[in-house]
Amino acid sequence: MANKNAGEKDAPFTSGFVALVGRPNAGKSTLLNACMGEKVAITSPVAQTTRRRMRAVINTPGSQLVIIDTPGLHKPKDALGSELNKAALAELADADVVAFLVDATKPVGRGDEWVARHVDSAEADYKLLVLTKADIAGPEQVSAQLEAARALCRFDDELVVSATEGFNVDAFLALVSEHLPEGPRWFPEGMDVDATPEDLVAEFVREKLFLHLRQELPHSVGVLCESLEYADDGHASIAATILVERDGQKGIVLGRGGQMIKRVGVEARRDIERLLGCRVFLDLTVRVAPQWRRDEREIRRLGYGLDEG
Q: Buried b / exposed e across 124-140, counting CB within 10 Å, b at 16+?
């Protein structure tokens, strides 16, 4: 018995980075939230909702798992798209484990093939095929999708999941954890994500804009948290700026009589109050910044590009 306890005590600490990659809307952010058991990444039906690389940390006594939610890889149409691809590919290059997410409800196509080429050339020791959205795909569809996805590149294993239903989320965590290398604790134990409160405030506001205005202008919208201050009574006062590219888009965000921006503010404030654990006063301003998606400095000021720090 003494020898067994000594062996357990001497077990190496493992840690590593797991990159979630795939086409836009493959379910990366939803899986990240399911792994964390709470909402840390925004989601919407709009492609390219994820613009910030998000690192979420899961600690156990013997390991630290860092799951990285990356922007969906796609053919870029502007500087914003190029920066998002750069950010995703940089995380893919440095990951210890790569999870390639494929939507079970959409045919495997050229976009998946393009992502697969990058996955195939990545140096990660373990590559996992993850078929997502199993709750809305029939058995025959899942089987056909798996067969098509297997042909994309070499995978060490495969898993079918439904993040919204919690199906195989624990199995996903167990699989990737088994393949972590020995390493240090990269982040403090109390740290869940590497995003600042200001980053998350901006993301929650942008999510509500995407959900309500996805047909009108989502990709023309950017959000920057300008300030976050705590008052003596414990509440937080937050000022955030919503960027659009044209005057007409500003009118859409404001809505008739200011109703749309009021609705966005009310819904975003609920998420922010849950995040901060206090009452929040949220002041939203809309500013026109012509062609900001083509301006690399503006893109990086908003935090949507490759981190150069």
A: bebbbbbbbbbeebeee
